[in-house]
């Protein structure tokens, strides 16, 4: 199965901070941009940081319990291979990124066992990066 790239636009309070975080910390190549938005290549998907400080100021964040952690809602991310996930976790740790949920393995011993970590960009957008030892288990039921 081949996946089509998704597109996600999200609000940021500051494009300079977004460019540093998404470009330098996350390693996403920058695409087109304007005075109000920046495209980034997020593992082959198009994400767009739109300067919208009034939306960021309103918040609108919550959480739901998942495997003993309060998972931020809303959030977005990508499923990586285990090695790439670990390299990213190490890079984020080295850069001093504060984790909302530290890198760990959840659902251990279950069909949906996965590596996961949660953190926020400078505008408070929650990001989950995850990996499966066996990607065929992505939608596996217990």
From TrEMBL:
InterPro entries, alphabetized: Glyas_Bleomycin-R_OHBP_Dase (IPR029068), Glyas_Fos-R_dOase_dom (IPR004360), VOC_core (IPR037523)
Annotated source species: Aurantiacibacter sediminis
Name listed for the protein in its UniProt record: VOC family protein
Family matches, as Gene3D superfamilies: 2,3-Dihydroxybiphenyl 1,2-Dioxygenase, domain 1 (3.10.180.10)
Residues annotated as domain VOC: 4-132
Superkingdom of origin organism: Bacteria
PANTHER family: PTHR39434, VOC DOMAIN-CONTAINING PROTEIN
């Amino acid at each position: 199965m081949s996946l089509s790239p998704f597109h996600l636009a999200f609000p940021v309070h500051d494009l300079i901070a977004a460019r540093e975080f998404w470009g330098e910390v996350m390693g996403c190549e920058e695409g087109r941009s304007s005075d109000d938005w920046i495209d980034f290549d997020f593992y082959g998907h198009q994400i767009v940081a739109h300067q919208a400080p009034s939306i960021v100021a309103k918040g609108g964040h919550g959480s739901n319990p998942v495997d003993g952690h309060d998972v931020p809602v809303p959030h977005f991310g990508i499923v990586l291979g285990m090695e790439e996930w670990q390299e990213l976790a190490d890079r984020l740790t080295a850069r001093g990124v504060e984790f909302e949920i530290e890198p760990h393995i959840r659902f251990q011993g279950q069909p949906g066992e996965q590596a996961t970590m949660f953190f926020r960009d400078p505008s408070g957008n929650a990001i989950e990066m995850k990996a499966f030892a066996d990607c065929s288990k992505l939608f596996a039921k217990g």
